[in-house]
Specification:
Oligomer: single chain
Strand content: under 5%
Distance between the termini: 32 Å
Shape: elongated
């Protein structure tokens, strides 16, 4: 298994950067263009899942969480934590999509999931949105389970040796019986 992971580090890089690109563009499209945050707020409200005060909180929090996690995934820093947050977001998005699809009242005419830049799935929430979010969830879970890969800040930090004095201090503390 370790040999497979060593040989396939570029697969991890591909998974990580794909998720980072999708969520970076999604965050950008919700934060930067004029009236983008208002359109996203209206999109979240149209799903009719959250009460109004949580709709406002979600509409203001989700784009920033997406932007921060996309940057962390791109750099490979705190990769598993960022992948966990992305997986939780995707799980909640899938729940919202399934709720709207099962309700089938036509209240949501367009999914504001990825903004204006990623138009893979047009029209009301449907199977295409579920497949896209499911595929991204799978990629995020791969990163969560197998880590960032070689080309990452996490790998660079993990491969560095601690300074010489650190081992001496640990040994003295162990001999005295105190926890580290």
């Amino acid at each position: 298994m370790k040999r497979l992971l060593r040989a396939g580090w570029w697969w991890l890089l591909l998974c990580r950067t794909t998720v980072a690109a999708f969520f970076g563009l999604a965050a950008y499209s919700k934060l930067v263009p004029p009236n983008a945050s208002q359109r996203f707020l209206e999109g979240v409200k149209a799903f009719k899942i959250l009460p109004d005060h949580l709709v406002i909180a979600a509409a203001n929090t989700i784009p920033w969480a997406e932007a921060i996690c996309a940057l962390l995934l791109l750099l490979g820093a705190w990769t598993r934590a960022a992948a966990l947050v992305i997986a939780a977001l995707l799980g909640s998005f899938l729940y919202g999509l399934l709720t709207v699809i099962n309700r089938a009242d036509g209240s949501v005419s367009e999914c504001s999931c990825f903004g204006d830049f990623i138009k893979i799935c047009d029209g009301p929430p449907g199977t295409c949105h579920l497949v896209l979010d499911g595929a991204l969830l799978c990629l995020a879970l791969v990163v969560l389970l197998f880590g960032p890969g070689r080309l990452s800040v996490d790998h660079l930090c993990a491969s560095r040796k601690p300074p010489e004095g650190v081992d001496y201090v640990r040994e003295v503390v162990r001999q005295e019986g105190r926890p580290i």
